[in-house]
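Page 47, continued from p. 46.
Same chain as before, 418 aa.
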Amino acid sequence: MITVSQQTHRRFVLGAQGLWPGRRFAGEAGVAAALREMHALQLDPLNVAARSQDIALYGRVEGYVPELLRRVAYEQRGAFDYGGWLHLYPIETFRFWRPQMRAARSHAYVASFRAKHPGAMRSALRALRERGPLANREIEGNHVGEWNYRGRKDTAVALHLLWLLGEVMIADRTGFDRVYDLRERVLPREHDLPATRAASEAFFARHVVALHGLVPEKSWRTHWWKRAGREAARLRGAKTLARAIERGELARVRLEGSRNWWLTLPEWLPLLGELEADRVPLAWKPLGAGTEEEMTLLAPLEIATARGRAKPLFDFDYVWEVYKPAHQRRWGYYTLPILWGDRLAARLDPRMDREREVLQVQGFWREDGVRATPEFADALAAGLARFARMFGAKRVDVRAMPAKLRAHVRRRAAGLLG
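Result:
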């Protein structure tokens, strides 16, 4: 039985997600590989410095630019969008969502919408069938009569519900706007065979652990029902977990300082052993500079740090403050954590001035005990320069930094940006 130290836990979560000890993927093929390694990539439309999904992939893929994600997901059909918290998932996992899609037909809201707008779904499907891929603004419809963030027309809401039911898929995006089409015209045929309910529930038993690296056993069911469904968790959660452990599909470990069992994937036990021996797994060797030499800005919806996970894992208080009123913000509108080595060493509030081709640092804060050494400044400058290059920025504006650090970072980043 492996006992995992806090350092190993931190490094393992980062490494299993492809963030540590540095980028090990490159180019278009690297984006596809990173998506499989991540298991899920949350999408968000806000584009202040960059969209969350692009920041996530910048931190994992050498030479990443946003167009690569579009090509992999929508041209090559390597991934699909789904869920209330919108994520991209590897396309080969679509079949395991089909039982949940079928179950959504009986949801009260779907039934209510069908009763109030009996022809809307048929109209939306007919438009797609006859005209090909369409955005909801391209389909005529009737005003729904009440506010709905999915659209003001009955056909717009119908498209969203048809997407949740798996009858249509997102075939492309224009900016962040969805372009829908019929499932049979989007999904590669080899992935269009639905999994059984039992196979789906067994898949998600592992998926929720793979997504987080290590999961407290007592929290597993909460993660599981969000994908397998509340009814499944209530009726079959305990049996599904016990069966997965008995069959060797999940493994138990101990975590230093915790009295509870933690779950991981059995094939990851050798990686945990390597990390406990203070060795970097060979498969994780970075292609270029590691996170000690080049800091990485982490996405606001990064699985390793979002929704309160940064505090227990890194002792780092992080809340994405975009939805807070300005007077309640402690740091800044779009403030991001900064990964240095295997720790969160600082945070900054970036904004991309696309007209002037300048990455602006509007606020910067080091964590207590982190000194602004030359090594720190060099690693920060390298991370900012790579981030700026992703969008073709020619300069980094660091006036918000302390004077001594500002001069070093400005000079170093300017040299890297040429």
